[in-house]
Amino acid sequence: MADSESFTRIALALPGTTSAPHFDRTAFKVKRTFATLAPDGLSANLKFTPDEQEFKCQLAPDVFEALDNGWGRQGWTRMWLGPATEDDVAAALAMAHANAVAKRK
């Protein structure tokens, strides 16, 4: 089971990552924000591509769900930390981090 402390530790271990307040959440960013942690520590939002989002949500629907709004249609995905393992967190953060550092075309 993952928690907000393991999420934060794993996120900040990714190259160039910093954290900062973002409204009521904590944002993790490199060139741009790739994840935010909810204030209650129960969930986090991660920025995937729409294809990655679809894959993650199908692979582990108890862990991942697309946000039901315009941000969700852009790939922002909620990750429930309770049912997630630290490996799930590490893989999801690595994917979102890679998207944040990739060059835009």
Topology:
Layout (H helix, E strand, L loop, with lengths): L3 H10 L4 E5 L2 E5 L3 E5 L5 E5 L2 H10 L4 E3 L3 H4 L2 E5 L5 H16 L4
Antiparallel strand pairs: 1-2, 2-3, 3-4, 4-6, 5-6
Helix pairs in contact: 1-4
Q: What does this protein structure show overall?
A:
The mean pLDDT is 96. The chain has a six-stranded antiparallel sheet with strand order 1-2-3-4-6-5. The protein is α+β, with helices and mostly antiparallel strands. It is built from four helices and six strands, in the order αββββαβαβα. α1 packs parallel to α4. The longest helix has 16 residues. It is globular and about 30 Å long.
Question: Beta fraction of the residues?
Answer: 25-35%
Residue share in helices?
Answer: 25-40%
Order of helices and strands: HEEEEHEHEH
Strand order of the largest sheet: 1-2-3-4-6-5
Shape: globular
| Main β sheet profile | 6 strands, antiparallel
Low-confidence stretches: none
Q: What is the count of β-strands?
A: 6
Radius of gyration: 12 Å
Mean pLDDT: 96
Q: Separation of termini?
A: 37 Å
* Count of DSSP-assigned helices: 4
| Broad structural category | alpha+beta
Short summary:
The chain has about 100 residues and is an alpha+beta fold. The protein has four helices and six strands. The chain is about 40% helix and about 25% strand.
